[in-house]
Amino acid sequence: MLTRFLTEVRVKFNPFSPRSKSARLFLTLIPPNARATGMKIEAKMLPRTSKEPASLDVKFRDGKELSLDIDKMRITEVMEQVDRHSRMLARKEELSGN
């Protein structure tokens, strides 16, 4: 997963719910030095009895924000959504020569 174009990640999930697996896996895919490189990561864990769906909000370097209801998504679908815009930004960066 391309994380160098992410500036902010906000995840909200119930860690005990099996439907929150995508949220937990997404957090594991973020590199350990992400905060040191300037990425803001906010993870909110909901109480065990919460019925609120898991959600993911991602902000990219170009200002685009992506909000996903990951309660019903697999991790591959989540990665595909995030990587789609990251690849576009990588292509723009490559073409501009930066």
UniProtKB/TrEMBL annotation:
Domain of life (superkingdom): Eukaryota
Annotated transmembrane regions: none
InterPro entries: Ribosomal_mL53, Ribosomal_mL53_fung
Localization in the cell: Mitochondrion
Gene3D superfamilies: Glutaredoxin (3.40.30.10)
Cellular compartments per GO CC: mitochondrial large ribosomal subunit
Pfam family, one: MRP_L53
Keyword annotations from UniProtKB, A to Z: Mitochondrion, Ribonucleoprotein, Ribosomal protein
Alphabetized GO MF terms: structural constituent of ribosome
Protein family according to the UniProt entry: Belongs to the mitochondrion-specific ribosomal protein mL53 family.
Name of the protein this chain belongs to: Large ribosomal subunit protein mL53
Organism field: Lophiostoma macrostomum CBS 122681
Lineage: Eukaryota, Fungi, Dikarya, Ascomycota, Pezizomycotina
